[in-house]
TrEMBL record:
Chief subcellular location: other
Compartments, record wording: Cell projection; Cytoplasmic vesicle; Endosome membrane; Nucleus
Comp. bias (Polar residues): 453-467
Database matches in InterPro entries: AH/BAR_dom_sf, BAR_dom, DP13A/B, PH-like_dom_sf, PTB/PI_dom, PTB_APPL
Protein name (record): Adaptor protein, phosphotyrosine interacting with PH domain and leucine zipper 1
Signal peptide: none
Biased composition (Basic and acidic residues): 616-652, 686-696
Amino acid sequence: MPGIEKLPIEETLEDSPQTRSLLGVFEEDTAAMSNYCTQLYQAMQRIYDAQNELSAATHLTSRLLKEYDKQRFPLGGDDEVMSSTLQQFAKVIDELSSCHAVLSTQLADAMMFPITQFKERDLKEILTLKEVFQISSNDHDMAINRYSRLSKKRDNDKLRAEVVEDVYTSRKKQHQTMMHYFCSLNTLQYKKKTALLEPLLGYMQAQISFFKLGSENLTQQWEDFLGTIGTSVQNVRREMEDEVGQMQQTIQQMETSCDSLYAPCDPDPTHSPVCRNLTRKQGYLFIRNKTGLVSSSWERQYFFTQGGNLMQQGRGEVAGGLVTDLDNCSVMAVDSDDRRFCLQWISTINNISKRIYLSENAEELAARVNQSAIEAPIRSLNPSLSLSLSLSLSLSLSLSLSLRSSKGRVGRASSISSVGSEPSPALSVLSLDALVAPETPIQFDIISPVSEENSAQSKTAAQSGRRSNPFGESGDGTSEDKSILHQLFIVRFLGSMEVRTAESADVIPETMRQILAARAIHNIFRMTESHLLVTCDCLKLIDPQTQVTRLRFPLSSVVQCSSHQDNKRLFGFVLQSASGRGDDRAVCYIFESNNDGEKICDSVGLAKQIAFHSEMDRKSVEKRKEQDKAKEKQQEELDKQRQIEKDLEEQSRLIAASSRPANPPAADGQFLVLSNSQSEDSDAGDEGKKKGESEA
């Protein structure tokens, strides 16, 4: 290393222009070194920050790979190979994260610390000494100027002494400051070399240590593992390319074969003949929604048949909803200019209405039935894909779905346990008439089922001079307010009808099917929204606007409650109330809720359990009270018996006292005289004696 330039400290007292010129060169070198050191410090700080960010990102990657097993991918499934592979990668990356953390610590100690010390301590010390030297130099110049302007008169001796002292002090301060300043500048010539080399040396040593640590962790085993994973990735990529090629080929074939299906009508009907052997069909149809009293709009939705029911499902919905029952219905083809009324599903609906779908070989049976059928002239939007259907089901529309009735009875026997489910074993031999009476009227508005009871209550209230509540609410504070269960649900009333049995599990699904079919047939779209309050005593339907109770169902009268198997928003319950003539009347109520119907049914079941346990507790308390009353009565009888015995003993004593002889004369010849009170007591004793004998 070449020689290092130095400032001559011996010439600081003389302070010659040559020395000041040389000092300027050193100060210029120091300023350049300070600027360069600042830039180098910023570059090394970026290295250190990047290393910290890399360490944190590596650790985060390892943590995310470890949490892969906890993720729930809808299409992922249980891929054990993928999970184990990612766990091994997480282990390796976690070890690398530890190595990066060690490297960050080494960079902080070996690289950042030396250059920070040089920048913050040594360079700032030079700047401070430079400022102090300039101040002392200015003070010395001012003292010399004052000394040179002194007068030679003797009366200025005191002022002369002060100026001389000032020159002495300022020159001494300048000399000392200048020597320390020169010493720091000379030392800086050595420090600037070490300040540049030590951070670089620490950086290289930290990197070498990091690479050695990485080579120790990434052994030959990991290299083999990485080679295996690379081979698997290449295999997956080849499979993806093969699959993409097959999909492209399928797309080309579909474009060629479906070219004729893009037109709204098939120019050649013989090209795609109608299949009359189907018992299931699906496609997009149009449904009419009323937007006002007269106006209406058509909405395109997806429809499909499920068993003997026609279902609809909107886009974004998970499950479909029931539109109408196709069992024992008839359909006819007409000529219409409005293509929204056109339908190619006639053969399928006819097969479903004949219950062909219940047989084992449905298509073969449908083929035999339709051998002699005459093909109806039908106009269709699209013979294979796009189908349109008028689902308003009114008599004025082109499509007519009417139930066949025989002698006023609906002759239907199909699955009613749930829409689209298999026929119930119990209903395979049991007619639907055993559940729902034929020609039973359906109530679509909310009317209280206990009108007779309300009328009787109003008469009683009129006789007692009190005003009755027309909404069925009691005026006094009942136990409903004290109920420990209060759950509120938003529901819409669909309808209710009287049923023959309240215990069958199929009565609620059958009632749902009939009410929904009747609503579709009669174009009833309005539903009354209410708040269903479930308590331990009753079920209440409350008006959401006025908070007035529309209906009140005693919980003890609710026989069963269940929801629809497919559409969980539908639920219903059977209410059984005893009439005055001794026979029971069962009514099934059907609702639609915003929530899951099963939650409402579970809430009703919980309320019945709480009510049952409360009733058991009440009976237990009443029994305990009766036992306490019996014990009190027994104790009273025992006390009364003891009192009688005590009275008899008292009477016996009085009788014994009254039966004694007259008072004998005294020893000194004097006689004893009874007072009036004693005589009265003796008379009372005689009367008591007689009374005791009579009682005995």
